[in-house]
Amino acid sequence: MKEEQNSNLSFGPEASRSTHQHETSLPSHSWSLEMLLRRLRAIEVKRDDKLASVLDAVGEFGTFQWRLVALTFIPYVLLSFFMFSDSFVLTSQRPYCNTSWILKVGPNLSVAEQLNLTLPRAPNGSFLTCLMYIPVPWDLDSIIHFGLNYTETCRYGWIYPYAKRRSLINEFDLVCGNEPNKENMQTVFLAGVLTGSLFFGFLSDKIGRYPVFLMSMAGLLVFGFGTAFVNTFYQYLFFRFTAAQAAVGYVISSVSLVMEWLVDEHRAHAIILQHCFLALGIIFLSGAATRVFHWRLVFLLAGAPMFPIISNI
């Protein structure tokens, strides 16, 4: 009986130690088993992915993928025209009140003579831009001899005799209290980006990337190209708002399509190249917008290539 107790006492700590070692070895065994199960699931998922299996057979980046990705790069050059054109179409112009009424009594007056007779001057000698002399029913000799004294705000609009380019400022007379707030214009554009992200992001998950891709390009064609034909400044803001929605819709759909067409590091390379083409478009915009003589030509240059692009997609 004592021998049995001694044997139990002698083997008891060793037995508990072996049991503890067995218990501590279970987590590592279960961890390796879990990793094995994950690998098996990954293999099954890859086997079920038909695109991955096809790309493994024909190549991860071939001529087909190259052509598809290259077609998404071209509109990125044009996107910069629609996204960053506000800085180039709002060039400041020096306005003067339209005083063409004096040409009825002096049709041979030059621009300098017309301004000198009909516009008041500031203390530094320059013409005031928001005031004019009140028209009088005198002949030209009387106006030259006696001069005009009473002023009023511009009654007949403004003229820009020394402006070399046609901008939004002199197109819609955004002067003398009607100046546009660039921060508000940027807010309108960013509001279009926000709503376009929500709308096209939701729509691309519901109906697919490719329909959204075509819808956004059609939106750029209608509202981006159509910006060149607006008649009021508020129409310009509306078209800019809608063009911003279409632009962000194109970015969302094109990035999603590239991610689905390519695998591995080719995805990162394609997305980086998309941003490079956007930067290239900004360079083209800077060169074109500073050389064209009319702000509408900026949107015509950006919208015209959309016709052949959308017809070949």
Task: Give a nutshell description of this structure.
The chain has 13 helices and 4 strands.
Detailed description of the structure:
- There is one protein chain.
- This protein is mostly helical and about 325 residues long.
- Helices cover about 70% and strands about 5% of the residues.
- A two-stranded antiparallel ribbon has the order 1-4. A two-stranded antiparallel ribbon has the order 2-3.
- Helix 3 (about 65-85) packs antiparallel against helix 12 and helix 9 (about 210-225) packs antiparallel against helix 10 (about 235-260).
- The longest helix is centred in the N-terminal third of the chain and has 47 residues, at about 1-50.
- The model is unreliable at about 1-30 (pLDDT under 50).
* Helical fraction: 55-70%
The biggest sheet, with number of strands, parallel, antiparallel or mixed sense and barrel status, is: 2 strands, antiparallel
Structural class: mainly alpha
Percent of sequence in beta strands: under 5%
Pfam family, one: MFS_1
Main location: membrane
Region (Disordered): 1-26
Biased composition (Polar residues): 1-10
